[in-house]
Design a protein that fits this description.
Radius of gyration: 17 Å
CATH architecture of the largest domain: 2-Layer Sandwich
Organism: Catellicoccus marimammalium M35/04/3
Strand content: 25-35%
Protein name: L-serine ammonia-lyase
Helix content: 25-40%
Number of strands: 10
Structural class: alpha+beta
Largest sheet: 6 strands, mixed
Family: Belongs to the iron-sulfur dependent L-serine dehydratase family.
Strand order of the largest sheet: 2-1-3-4-5-6
EC number: 4.3.1.17
GO biological process, one term: gluconeogenesis
Order of helices and strands: HHEHHHEEEEEEHEEHE
CATH superfamily of the largest domain: D-3-phosphoglycerate dehydrogenase, domain 3
Number of domains: 2
Length: 225
C-alpha cells in the first residue's frame, strides 16, 4: 500500500483552522485554494469559472464552498468575517462567476477537487486545487496562458515568472545562503516566457522571496500562503 504524505505545518492544521464557515475541508481549504489563485493571478479576476468534482460537486452549495472560493479569489483568508458575504461583495465589485458540477471523476483522483479558471481583459489562468483536510490545500496543476506545470503538492510553494530561464544551480546557490532546501524544481517555457515552481522544505519569509526576486532577476516571485 502506498502511503501519502500530507504537508501539515502543525497539529493545529489537523485540529482545524480559525475560520468562518461550516467545514475545514469544504470552506477553509477552499478559501486557501482561492487565495493562492488570487496571489498567482496578482489581482482580483473579472471572470471566474469553477468546476467542482466528486464531493465538492455534491455538497458545495450546503457547505459554503462557493462563498469560500470567491472570498479567497478576492484575497481574503478563512478567518475574515466577510467570507460568508463574499458572493455579494464580488458582485458589487463587478466580478462574474459561475459554478459547475461535473459528473466526471476528479482529474487528480481526489474527492475535494476544484478546477478554477480566472481571467480579465489582459490574462487568463487555470489552476487545479484540492482541499486535503484541516483547512490545508494543495495546488496540483497550473496553466498560465499555456504554460502548464504539474504536479505541485506542497503548500511551501514559490512561483517565479520570467522572460529568461531560471537555472536550478543558481537557485540552489541562493537557497544555500538562505538556509533553505529545494525539495523539487519544475519549469516550463513557451514563446520566451518561463514559469518555475520551487517546493521548499519550509515556507520562505517575505525577505527571502525578495532575495530570490532580486538575485534571479525574474519578473515576479510569488509565495503562496
Amino acid at each position: 500500500m502506498t502511503k501519502k504524505r500530507f504537508n501539515y505545518n502543525s497539529c493545529f492544521d489537523i485540529i482545524g483552522p480559525i475560520m468562518v464557515g461550516p467545514s475545514s475541508s469544504h470552506t477553509a481549504g477552499v478559501c486557501a485554494i482561492g487565495r493562492a489563485i488570487f496571489q498567482l493571478f496578482g489581482k482580483m479576476p473579472q471572470k471566474v469559472r469553477v468546476t467542482y468534482y466528486e464531493s465538492f460537486a455534491q455538497t458545495h452549495q450546503g457547505h459554503g464552498t462557493d462563498y469560500a472560493m470567491i472570498a479567497g479569489l478576492m484575497g481574503m483568508k478563512a478567518a475574515d468575517n466577510r467570507v460568508s458575504q463574499a458572493l455579494d461583495l464580488a458582485r458589487e465589485a463587478g466580478m462574474e462567476f459561475e459554478f459547475i458540477e461535473s459528473k466526471e471523476p476528479s482529474p487528480c483522483q481526489h474527492a475535494n477537487t476544484a478546477v478554477v479558471e480566472v481571467s480579465d481583459e489582459e490574462s487568463t489562468l487555470t489552476v487545479t486545487g484540492v482541499s486535503i483536510g484541516g483547512g490545508a490545500m494543495e495546488i496540483r496543476f497550473i496553466d498560465d496562458q499555456g504554460l502548464r506545470i504539474e504536479p505541485c503538492y506542497t503548500t511551501n510553494l514559490v512561483v517565479l515568472k520570467s522572460h529568461l530561464p531560471v537555472y536550478k544551480e543558481k537557485v540552489d546557490e541562493i537557497c544555500d545562503v538562505l538556509g533553505v532546501t529545494i525539495d523539487s524544481f519544475q519549469s516550463a517555457a513557451m514563446d520566451g516566457r518561463y514559469l518555475t515552481l520551487l517546493n521548499t522544505d519550509r515556507q520562505l519569509t517575505s525577505l527571502e522571496v525578495e532575495a530570490l526576486f532580486d538575485r534571479l532577476h525574474v519578473d515576479k516571485a510569488i509565495r503562496l500562503g
